[in-house]
Task: structure prediction
Amino acid sequence: MAASIVFVFGLLIGSFLNVCIYRIPKNISIVFPNSHCPKCKKEIKWYDNIPVLSYLLLLGKCRNCKTKISPRYLIVELITAILFVSGFYRFGLSREFISILVFISVITIFSFLIVIALIDLKTQYIYDVTVIPLAIFGICVSVLIPGRGPLLALAGYLAGGAVFLLIAIFSLAVYKQEGMGMGDVKLAAATGTFLGLQGVLIMSLLSVILGSIISSYLLLSGRKHRMDPIPFGPFIVLGTFIVMLAGDKIILAGYYFQNFIIKN
Ligand SMILES: [Zn+2]
Result:
């Protein structure tokens, strides 16, 4: 029951994240005005703006001009809802004040990450208005994590930034083209504030592995060409989600690998 409420809440927030993804690159306010059809400019009524349902009922078209609406809207709503439910199972949610604060912090971080990844996919750009508030938020919520606090959050910020700055310099030297931008460095730094030192290093490793596998696939299958930009932000976001939702399992697997496989 609680999980289904979290799911529906995730759909509603996902619908708002769609607005952010569409408006932040255009530098439009995310609060006003109400949503309009990008083609015919007609205002979208509340009953045509219900997550998932409206999209299915209208068969993915504007009610007025019948322009096709990107399935991305539906996908973002579903991904947000699924991630919120995963966060609910991973971090729990009770009536205790601290548990509510932790849950709200987790879904806020998830929301930032979804918006950053989707905007980067669309525009190949990571906006300061998204990564700077995420870093500040990460430093603030570090007081909720036992044994962390703002100083260690800051250390995580510097570690994440340093690792990706090195990768950026390295890829510039080797490939003679900008493989990683300053946006990626700022994003990795921001994730360090809540992942912590160990977490941000695991995230870096995961995102580089995922990035290499998926870019190789895109290049080899001819979906992308050598000079096409492949945004790296989504891989940092993916790595961050994995560490947040399954970080302890990865660390355990690491210990297992060290103690049983290497030693034997
Ligand atoms: Zn329309």
About this structure: DSSP finds eight helices and no strands in the chain. Residues 1-93 form one domain.
